[in-house]
Design goal:
Number of domains: 2
Oligomer: single chain
Largest sheet: 6 strands, parallel
Radius of gyration: 22 Å
Structural class: alpha/beta
CATH class of the largest domain: Alpha Beta
Distance between the termini: 40 Å
CATH superfamily of the largest domain: Vaccinia Virus protein VP39
Length: about 375
Amino acid sequence: MALKKSELYSSLWSSCDELRGGMDASQYKDYVLVLLFIKYVSDKYAGVPYAPITLPQGASFKDMVALKGKPDIGDQINKKIIAPLANANKLSDMPDFNDANKLGSGKEMVDRLTNLIAIFENKALDFSKNRAGGDDILGDAYEYLMRHFATESGKSKGQFYTPAEVSRIIAQIIGIRNAATGAATTVYDPTCGSGSLLLKVGDEAGTAVTLYGQEKDAATSGLARMNMILHDNPTALIVQGNTLDDPKFKEGGTLKTFDYVVANPPFSDKRWSTGIDPLHDPYERFQPFGVPPAKQGDYAYLLHIVRSLKSTGKGACILPHACCSAAMPRPTSAAISCARATSRASSACPPTCSTAPASPPASSSSTSRTRLPARASS
């Protein structure tokens, strides 16, 4: 029987209560979701030959339970659990379970980590025979946690997660379900966050496809890698880095191209050009269609998507209203550029972008009123 989401989320919420202290809401998820990951892979793959993830001896959740109450519990979790698991599976930027600034020191840390581990000992969280109802455990957990903590942290959950409903629509827009797909079919998300959008597109395909993702935030890219493993996509290639400044997927001196590209990039990224010279871009992303405005990065991400598509590829991305016209000095040129770009990449640009002169520069208030979920610039 599938574990009810309400039971899982209630348990996660209790976990966060144990970690409140002085930690920022955006940091709660790192500890809680890493523990969820360790519990899941321990239940599913302990002793399983040829498992998609390596569970080093002495680094399972059972071994973590044995550390409860020990005076050096934080240091021991780092050395005996986190480090071996991360090294064996190429996971990076795992949280520090011995951070006194976040978890307290002495008895406070011991009690907090002991109680946190105990929450995951709940028999209802036995993943050896079942898994949570629904298909995006980490993604849905992110959304649940951020919905409760957003007010006090002031950070958007969209920074690392695209809601499942929106992801499904994007997956349907690109038409991958009815396409002839296989292991050689490639799907790429240049701003993948926790990987929820990539996973939805993969689920929509009729066969297993190969997933690629790049994420700027180091901690979030680590969570994306764990999310891939949790959803039986251990071969997915997730890398960390700034996609516009340092794209990781290349073939020689050019960008690697993909069959499908999807994205929910940071809205109105004012620092998009940091570290690059758009007029002399070695990947020629901006020369054909014009350089995007200095402080309006939406168009830059769209052009990166276009450049990353095969000639027969399809793309879809979420962008704010009037993304192709905001702050562009020559409206007609902007409209033509958007028309060419969107002929190969579907986006959330309004219809007028590709059929009429661009509207006046969008104000910050109009961008904030968009109904689509925004990813915060990082």
